[in-house]
Write a structure and sequence with these properties.
Largest sheet: 3 strands, mixed
GO molecular function: ribosomal small subunit binding
Structural class: alpha+beta
Strand order of the largest sheet: 1-2-3
Oligomer: single chain
Strand content: 15-25%
InterPro entries: KH_dom-like_a/b, RbfA, RbfA_dom_sf
CATH architecture: 2-Layer Sandwich
CATH superfamily: K homology (KH) domain
CATH topology: GMP Synthetase, Chain A, domain 3
Radius of gyration: 18 Å
Number of domains: 1
Main location: cytoplasm
Family: Belongs to the RbfA family.
Order of helices and strands: HEEHHEH
Pfam families: RBFA (PF02033)
Distance between the termini: 52 Å
Number of helices: 4
Shape: elongated
Length: 129
């Protein structure tokens, strides 16, 4: 991605984070939405937005199936978000927004949780010295 597209992606990420937090009031959108990354097509036609959703209860909260309803809410609100984003950006066109669940970040968080549990359990057991 060239530098111009990267700057635009960074601006969209900042603006979308505020818009999702302040403007989307759908009760089906549970948890805290974090935008991991944005990839913009070279013709500015589409922006693929990768999100993770942190739930209040963490038991199996990283599974992709757990967040399908939240992703549907975001994708249905993409037209509204695009309109609001067009008022904030200084570009001639505003890309269409497509939301995807970021499995890489979710898997990394899950693995870090497993590692911390393993370390805690091994600290409680005597070593084989």
């Amino acid at each position: 991605m060239n530098q111009r597209l990267q700057r635009l992606a960074d601006q969209i990420q900042r603006d979308l984070a505020v818009l999702i937090r302040d403007e989307i009031n759908d009760p089906r959108l549970t948890g805290f939405v974090t935008i991991s990354s944005i990839k913009i097509s070279p013709d500015l036609g589409y922006a693929d937005i990768y999100v993770t959703i942190m739930e209040k209860s963490m038991d199996d909260a990283m599974a992709k199936d757990y967040h399908t309803e939240s992703l549907e809410v975001l994708n249905k609100a993409s037209g509204f978000l695009r309109t609001e984003l067009s008022h904030l950006l200084k570009t001639r066109t505003t890309p269409r927004l497509r939301f995807h669940y970021d499995e890489v970040t979710a898997n990394a968080n899950y693995m870090m949780n497993l590692i911390s549990k393993a370390v805690q359990s091994s600290e409680g057991q005597p070593s084989d010295d």
